[in-house]
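note to self — DONT lose this again. spent like an hour looking for the file last time. sequence + predicted structure for the chain T wanted, 202 res
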Amino acid sequence: VQTCALPILTARRIAEDLGFPKVKTLSKPIDPVALRSALQENFTEVLSLDLPAIDRAFEDGELILHYQPKVDLKTGNVASVEALLRWRHDRFGLLPPRAFMGVLVEFDQMTRLSHFVIERGVAQAAAWEKQGLHLAVAVNVNARSLDQSAIFQWLSSALTQHQLAPDRLIIEVTETEVLGQGVKTMETMSRLRMRSEEHTSE
């Protein structure tokens, strides 16, 4: 114990001198489950994310989408891609959604985020279409965004602006979110499906 005390105290002092926040104290041997839980519980607090930081992320291009291919097992071809949201933070590096999604919910930014991922996803799908890559893009959208009366018109405008067929956009919403958000959400999803089917039949 005496042998390990000096390095531990030295590390603690260095961290304090550099201004590193302490998440939690864990005893050795470190339990991976306890470590993961401590990081998840304190991630948002450690990052000190606030509304001005969120505004900068939207306005300065810190929020980005990565695209994960989905392969058709029958043909082996890439049938579509899924848009994965990341925050390219200037201090903390590339952050996954779990690190900042709670802050977006807290500051009522989910509709803004839904608009962002749809706009970027549609723009990327249209760019690929012009290059001869016919890929549908799947984006995750919060059900509360679909519960707004203007969302259908906004989606239609985005598709028209980028000249993208409706069947190139896949909107993914968890079943529990849809069930909890009421009639407007179901109505919007039905109208989007009808528009896609109308375009396919033309």
